[in-house]
Amino acid sequence: MRPLARIVSAVVVLSALGCGASTYFTRFRDTTPTVDSPQAALAAIRESRDPGLRRAAFEYLGDPRHLGGEAGDRDEVTSILGLALQSETEPQTRILVLESMTRLGSPKRVEAMSPAVTDKEPAVRAAACRHLGRTGSPEAAAKLEPVLVSDSSLDVRLAAADALANIPTQQAALSLLAGLEDSDVAIRYRCRQSLKQITGKDYSGSVGEWRQEIQTVNFEELAKKRHFGMF
After folding, report:
1. Is the model's pLDDT at 222 over the cut of 50?
2. What is the spatial distance between Cα 20 and Cα 228, in angstroms, rounded to a whole number?
3. What is the pLDDT of residues 67-125, one digit of tens each?
4. How many structural domains does the chain have?
5. What is the C-alpha to C-alpha distance for residues 4 and 175, in angstroms, rounded to an integer?
6. Could you tell me if residue 211 is inside a domain?
7. Cα–Cα distance, 161 to 196 (Å, whole number)
8. Counting beta carbons within 10 angstroms of the beta carbon of residue 17, is it exposed (0 to 12), middle (13 to 18) or buried (19 or more)?
9. Which residues are CB-contacts of 171 (< 8 A; sequence separation ≥ 6)?
10. What domain range is 66 assigned to?
11. H/E run at residue 33
């Protein structure tokens, strides 16, 4: 097992058990670690109650260069950040954790980010929508759809509508199509703008024409080409 993998595994076990036993991390207990290595960053997350140091650690781990370019390490650290996302008390720190997961680019980031769409703070929920949208993942569209429909914050719903524009799938487009009939004019407008971005077309408020466009056989193929700038 790679050294970083062993350290990450230790963090997962200790986080789950709340263990205070002697481990690699106890070396940092009576000192103030600097965030200059993955080991020090993980130790700071495990041991430090200093919000500034914790934020520095999350930011450090969000740079894939610090993990040596190993895909497995990015996956493991993303899982650690997912745990942190659900336990950090400060909203701005949780937003920073989301940003770090996006920068790592692990396929696990959609699953790790998803709990944040139900965070108690609207700012965190909106940030989660933005970062899920940036993944371009079909799985992210499934997480964003209920947010667009029923979140209690208009700003969060608008963030979901914007985020769906970055997911070139039929499911994302159908979610936006439903938003064209929302009671809120701002939601209708944002859904229309996002549909224009996905399809390259503008049918104004005509739900029927939008639906016909979305249900064409090669819709996703064309949407993906448009999304990636292939034409």
Report:
1. yes
2. 49
3. 987 889 999 999 999 999 999 999 999 999 999 999 999 999 999 999 999 999 999 99
4. 1
5. 40
6. no
7. 12
8. exposed
9. 138, 141, 142, 145
10. 1-107
11. none
For residues 49 and 110, give the distance between their C-alpha atoms in angstroms, rounded to a whole number.
Answer: 27
- pTM (2 d.p.): 0.83
Identity at 112, one-letter amino acid code: A
CA-angle at 229, arms to 161 and 117, nearest 5°: 25
For tokens 């016909």, the residue is: 212
Residue 36 lies inside a defined structural domain of this protein: yes
Dihedral, CA of residue 28, residue 29, residue 35 and residue 37, to nearest 10: 30
Domain assignment present for 180: no
Q: Which DSSP state fits 58?
A: H
Alpha carbon distance 128, 159 (integer Å): 9
Contact 209, 181 (CB under 8 A): no
Return the structure tokens found at 83. 């745990």
51: number of Cβ within 10 Å: 13
CA angle (190, 133, 35) in 5-degree steps: 135
Is 203 domain-assigned?
no
